[in-house]
Hints:
The structure holds 2 protein chains of 2 kinds. Chain A has strands at residues 5-7, 10-13, 19-24, 31-37, 43-50, 65-69, 75-79, 88-95, 104-105, 109-113. Chain A is an all-beta fold. Chain A has one domain (5-107): Immunoglobulin-like (Sandwich), CATH 2.60.40.10. Chain B has a domain at 15-81: Immunoglobulin-like (Sandwich). Chain B starts with a strand and ends with a strand. The model of chain B has no long low-confidence stretch (mean pLDDT 93).
Amino acid sequence: xxxxxxxxxxxxxxxxxxxxxxxxxxxxxxxxxxxxxxxxxxxxxxxxxxxxxxxxxxxxxxxxxxxxxxxxxxxxxxxxxxxxxxxxxxxxxxxxxxxxxxxxxxxxxxxxxx
Amino acid sequence: xxxxxxxxxxxxxxxxxxxxxxxxxxxxxxxxxxxxxxxxxxxxxxxxxxxxxxxxxxxxxxxxxxxxxxxxxxxxxxxxxxxxxxxxxxxxxxxxxxxxxxxxxxxxxxxx
Lengths: 114, 112
């Protein structure tokens, strides 16, 4: 596609429910990132996928968070048993290869946990 | 621990003036530093990358400097326009690591 696509753009859920956020990276990009941005805060790194290598999960805040990337393309970020503090904008980015530092971001998913 | 500091207060300037934004970092030796622009409701958009062996980089009305001694990068927008109003994020990166760490960003408001 022309850019990084994320869905849904907005998600409202109840505390305790599971949510899935989807990211479609730019075609041909091998690296994929998930970041989280809370109101007035910087981007918090969550997880990084590069090709077929094991993902770097060092930024995941708890074991309620997980992500997978199927076929080296689409990625899904799953948050189980959501909490109010999970409310944030979840941003996905991709880059051409693992040695290209320039990231292309999607518009994000605004997650609101009530 | 690593720390990236950007002015938290919004920078208000008049159209036509030069805007200068600051990014300071501590406990960190980045091999490169990126600047991104973020508009409300959108993801960041890459603007410029400068490497540790480069002192200055230019692109159209944008100029970035990188002083590894002062541990600081300055981002300049000359002849600023209201359309330049946005939040600007700096993101230093370590050599061999392709996971940039982002500052909180500085909001720039250019008044007509």
